[in-house]
Amino acid sequence: MPQVRITVVKRLDRDEILADVDPGCSCRGEARCTAFEDGQTFLAEYTRMPEGFCPGAWADLFRYVVGLQAGADYPWMNQPGTVLACCNDGFRPVIFRLERVP
Q: Residue 38 in contact with residue 13, Cβ under 8 Å?
C-alpha cells in the first residue's frame, strides 16, 4: 500500500484571519500553531499517525490519507495523487499538502 507524504504548506497567523476577535479573548494565545513548522514533512502509513504529528490534525487529514492510499484522485487538484487539506483549528489553522508516494 502506498504511503502518503504530508507537508506543512503554511501555518496561518490568527491575527491575519481573526481581526474581529476581542484582543482580551482567552483564545488569543500563540498566533500560529506551535505543533508544526512550515515545510515540515511526515510519511503516513495506513492507520498509523506519524510520530510527532498533532492528533487533532491527524483526525482531520485521515480520510484524505486513506483515500490517497486507496487510489483516490481529487478532481479539484491539478496533479493526480495530491490534495490540499486543512486542520479544523479555527484560531490557528494549518494547510497541508498530501501526496501519494508509490
A: no
Q: How far does the chain reach from its first CA to its final CA, in angstroms?
A: 8
Question: Domain residues of the chain, as ranges?
Answer: 3-101
Q: Residue 43: which residues within 8 A CB-CB, separation 6 or more?
A: 3, 4, 5, 6, 50, 101
- For residue range 8-44, list pLDDT tens digits in order: 999 988 777 666 666 666 665 677 889 999 999 999 9
CA nearest to 32, candidates 10, 48, 53, 50: 10
Would you state the cell numbers that stand for residue 55, as one nine-digit string?
492528533
DSSP H or E stretch at residue 94: strand 94-101
Q: Rounded CA gap, 33 and 80, in Å? A: 29
